[in-house]
Amino acid sequence: MSETIIRIEHLYKTFGTGDGKVEALRDIDLEIQKGEIFGIIGLSGAGKSTLVRCINLLERPTSGKVTVNGQELTALKEKDLRKARRSMSMIFQGFNLLMQRTALGNICFPLELNGLRGEAKWREKRARELLEIVGLPDKADAYPVQLSGGQKQRIAIARALADDPKVLLCDEATSALDPTTTQSILALLKKINREMGVTVVVITHEMRVVEQICDRVAILDHGVIQEQGDVSEIFSNPRTEAGRRLVMPNGEKIHVLPANRLVRLAFNGATSGEPIIATLAAEQGIRLNIISADTRTIGDKSFGAMVLGLPQDETEAARALIYLREIPGVTAEEVTDLVQ
User: Fold this and answer.
1) Residue ranges of the alpha helices (H) in the chain?
2) Which residue in 6, 15, 49, 150 has the fewest CB atoms around it within 10 Å?
3) CB atoms near residue 82 (< 10 Å)
């Protein structure tokens, strides 16, 4: 049975007063399970960074509860809150390394802050262990200016792990990185989650990050959680406009001639690599036009949607619909001449 490590209840965050008041977050309810990788995704201005800062109370909510590891953070005094925060660490888009310190010194820094200044040998040993974990054992004496963006983020991750946190909060941690480096950082986060048992919360505007790393996801839009659930569920059937914008960003309205009949395929976990269109042409002699497609593979399964133009011949169109509706993991429905 899963265990909740982060519970957010009826959380509101408001900035300003009067005419200048801004409701950044409204009635947020979330439960994040111990040991999972949970994604919070939204477009710019959705309230993602405010929400993550409310989780560790760097930003105090206007109202509502935040409970982490069984402690209600919103009820703690400042001294107790500082202690409770040690169970959480955070990494950022901008790395936030100390430029005057080496990689080793950056990793040791949070241990010094936590009162372990007299344990220099232990701190160094711990830092070198973490350099091994993040794959940079040879960069102990390098300064941030001597490191690439991906290396800086690895050092930032090692620093975040120094105090043995239970939760790692990642605020747009890959947004400043190129695609190849992003892949390596995501692989590292999955390794840390799997091997160290750290719960990872990923804040991002990139759906590709969610699909590659997250177990579950919440979609945030204008300070409100629009929907949440398993990544495969959200990808296969987004229920809200905000969800459709993120999952199917290329799903603009498509104008076709009124004479065309269209069928929309929703991939709900069909086996990836199954050549549906080619097989239909080879086995049934029926050729379909691909009007639009926005699909992706998660694991070995396909999710997303595709719009096809049916043959003008009524008999062939009927045969095509029958064939498509019998494919496991695929939902086929005829749609109008204007598709969103």
Assistant:
1) 48-55, 78-84, 103-113, 120-133, 149-161, 179-196, 207-213, 231-236, 241-247, 276-284, 314-325
2) 15
3) 12
CATH class held by domain 4-236: alpha beta
β-strand pairing of 167-171 with 199-204: parallel
Q: What percentage of the chain reaches a pLDDT higher than 70?
A: 88
Beta-carbon contacts of 245 under 8 Å, excluding residues fewer than 6 positions away, are: 43
CATH number of 254-339: 3.30.70.260
Distance CA(335)–CA(84), nearest Å, equals 53
- Interatomic CA distance for residues 182 and 209, integer angstroms: 9
Q: Give, as one character, the DSSP assignment of residue 70.
A: T
pLDDT of residue 340: 42
Cα–Cα dist 289/261, whole Å? 11
Query: Could you tell me which residue, 314 or 10, shows the higher pLDDT?
Result: 10
Question: C-alpha angle with apex 10: 9 to 12, nearest 5 degrees?
Answer: 125
* 3-class state of residue 132 by DSSP: helix
User: Residue 305: beta bridge partners?
Assistant: 266, 294
Average pLDDT over residues 80-95: 88
Please tell me the predicted confidence (pLDDT) of residue 117. 52
Side chain identity at residue 328, one-letter code = P
CB 67 within 8 A of CB 225: no
> Quick one: residue 91, left, alpha or beta (phi over 0 = left, psi -120 to 50 = alpha)?
beta
Q: What own/partner pairs with CB < 8 Å and gap ≥ 24 does 321-328 have? A: 321/263, 323/280, 323/284, 323/286, 324/263, 324/265, 324/276, 324/280, 327/270, 327/274, 327/276, 328/270, 328/271
- Cβ neighbours for 229, distance < 8 A, ≥ 6 positions apart: 216, 217
Locus of tokens 């405010």: 50
For the chain, give every domain's residue range.
4-236, 254-339
The CA R_g of the chain, rounded to the nearest whole Å, is 24
